[in-house]
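Archive entry. Fields below.
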Amino acid sequence: MDKTYASPEEAIADIPNGATIAFGSFFTAGKPTALTKALAKKGVKDLTVVVQQVGTGNEEMLELVTNGQIKKAICNYPFPRSASKGAQHPFEQAVRGGKIKLEIYPIGTFVEKLRCAGAGIPGFYTPTGVGTVVAEGKEVRVFNGAECLLELALPVDFAFVHAWKGDREGNLVYRFTAQNYNNAMAMAGKVTIAEVETLVEAGELDPNFIHTPGIFVKRVVETGRPEFNSASV
Amino acid sequence: MDKTYASPEEAIADIPNGATIAFGSFFTAGKPTALTKALAKKGVKDLTVVVQQVGTGNEEMLELVTNGQIKKAICNYPFPRSASKGAQHPFEQAVRGGKIKLEIYPIGTFVEKLRCAGAGIPGFYTPTGVGTVVAEGKEVRVFNGAECLLELALPVDFAFVHAWKGDREGNLVYRFTAQNYNNAMAMAGKVTIAEVETLVEAGELDPNFIHTPGIFVKRVVETGRPEFNSASV
Amino acid sequence: MSKMSKVVIPEMPPLEREMIALRIANMLEDGSYVNLGIGIPTLVSNWIEGRDIIIQSEIGMLKCGPLADEGEQDQDRINASCQFVHELPGSCYFNVETSFAMIRGGRMDVAVLGALQVSAKGDLAGWNNPARGLGKTGNIGGSMDLAVGAAKLIVAMEHFTPGGEPKILEVCNYPLTAKECVDVIVTNYALIEVTPKGLVLKEAIPGITAEDVQKMTAAKLIVADDFHEMEL
Amino acid sequence: MSKMSKVVIPEMPPLEREMIALRIANMLEDGSYVNLGIGIPTLVSNWIEGRDIIIQSEIGMLKCGPLADEGEQDQDRINASCQFVHELPGSCYFNVETSFAMIRGGRMDVAVLGALQVSAKGDLAGWNNPARGLGKTGNIGGSMDLAVGAAKLIVAMEHFTPGGEPKILEVCNYPLTAKECVDVIVTNYALIEVTPKGLVLKEAIPGITAEDVQKMTAAKLIVADDFHEMEL
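PREDICTED_STRUCTURE:
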């Protein structure tokens, strides 16, 4: 099975307006930089993006904001930490101005919603968020004396992930903390597209140490090691 | 943090009568052989065992049965495949005779119950088992038009896992399909005890490729590579 | 049970188990991920060597290779039926929670399972033969997850029980594996599709007519417009 | 809000942030797994070098080492605050779903978090400052999971807001991170335990009396029998 594509542009060519797309990355680590740039270039609109934060330590995402491509964002740490930086930030401004709708979750819930989407589990209970704004509109149920919220799986049409190495069949290996959300998003994606720093032949990765099995990955594109821009968060 | 114990006997010394214990292994692969033998020798009784199967391809478990140490078993493939072999099998006989109570789950539910126990998720919904005996007494709820069952987390007092390599701080690496249930059980265990074929110093395992992070493991004991007995299943 | 006695076992010799497996192998598309259950389904792997099909084993292995002979066996490399297997270039190993995430999460394009009974609606009964007398317990294993999770579920089985009773019934009377999950049934006499209209007979082995298949089946069959001889 | 204006800020210079961190470091037991939040909590790591304490970073790292200076920085090795860190012998990396399984699953012996407000019952408000005007949105991050999951939750914060308002209140009026989750509050003036009976004042910095602490706190304090000067 050769899942490789020649370029990021070709790998994302069929993404339509209105798609829901998840993006790996924890601030600066493990960003699908090349795929995100290609998406900005493609210019599709009305996107729902699922990502830790939009444009904080992640300039590529920011371009989607300034291009007006995003309709809705599902995040866990959406804004710059600093209130003053936030006030200047295009994403925060778009949210404040009602141009982008924002939905937020605690990280543990956010990532578990993605994993569950990939695991065929439509809903799960968590104690996180009880008694907070996160609980609004959600079912509360008591397990062993502790209140928990019902949270639902979050499937996505496309997932963009960034891996250190990948083989032609989609087996992926991440590097250090660049692993972060990439595996859960690969699981959640109906179509998962992996950009890999180095593409190898099937059999070159140690089969005992694959972070994301190829079955979760539909497309692979080699994009090299991204240049690092140490953005402020 | 040095979590090592000198022997399997010392590592399990505090297990009381009535404990719930999970055992890694998928038939013959990844069995905590030395720990299970030590448990048989210790002779504690009224145990609840959580394990794929009891004594099929797993002679060490069988000894717990013939010793009368097991009160209840929670399994997904409890019996020998062959009906005639089953009729002769001490575990099947004990279940038929009412000496051991048996609870069964589909594998996917079984392993997810363990993972959830370790992940602080008290319950989850799964489409597996709807309309079958597995659904009896369980809440059914519809998600996106599909009926699902509510299944609960399954925490265990102790988990016995078998790893290929482990360091003193409990980081574990498994080998090939001997990985199987060991990670989920390590997560579920209030006290997880790992027998490792080879014990190494902290820093000797590649930190990018740890299957079970040390935080899930309370005790480590080096037991060498187990002799292989290719038991029939 | 009255229906059971009405079925007629033909004189024609049925397909060997290997040939049932071959018919199924020919249905698999290149580029697909497939899980094979215990029994006849396992034999499908003999017919797909060299093809671009990846076998998943629910123990936690993708691209599970052929059975390993003595001398090449590794105690840590077995499939879900506890058989020693080979690794292939591109194989990978993972834990059982991930394995069943794949299965339940719909990543298996095809699962091939054995069955004790299949109903006209595609209900599958495969994990508990009441004759064994184990009541509501038994070996579920991965069968229920595969039945609900696989995009396409093919049942591979003999048309009759060893005692000559039909296995395709209007309604299953054995404990179910899952409801309305079977897409195709391939037996040693026929290939039958489960459709919203009912069971559609698509193929029969040489020398067996559609009428013959109906006589040996305890559920009503719709004969397909393109009903034809099974090609192998 | 009336209570807020009643509190009295003392003349005594309070502890530096580093000293709050030191007091907390001295509370940590060897052999424990600890998660440190953004802000003062992060400074705790400066005081535990060489001790047998393992720091978890929720990005997916155990045994997270000290900050890495320029030249030693790796773009793929950052902590949850996006700072470059070192690896230590025995470090390991994992994905975020596993990271939060640990956190929510109760494997963190201690979490140290900053706070905007803490209530008399130990409610924590730390993720949303209404002054920023973001309504019901904001940066939750890992704070809610840590607050419910950690076996022991220590809050590290200044006693007053930059505007001189009290942060320890009978009831929080900022959006909550979690209810009844805080075990200990360490501020730049005092150490207060949250108990079923209420807030118990255990320690104050030199020159500050129990009465002083009560005056600067907008919730009722019970003075511990062994109330004493904070040792650092």
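CURATOR_NOTE: The helical segments of chain D are 17-27, 40-43, 96-104, 143-149, 210-215.
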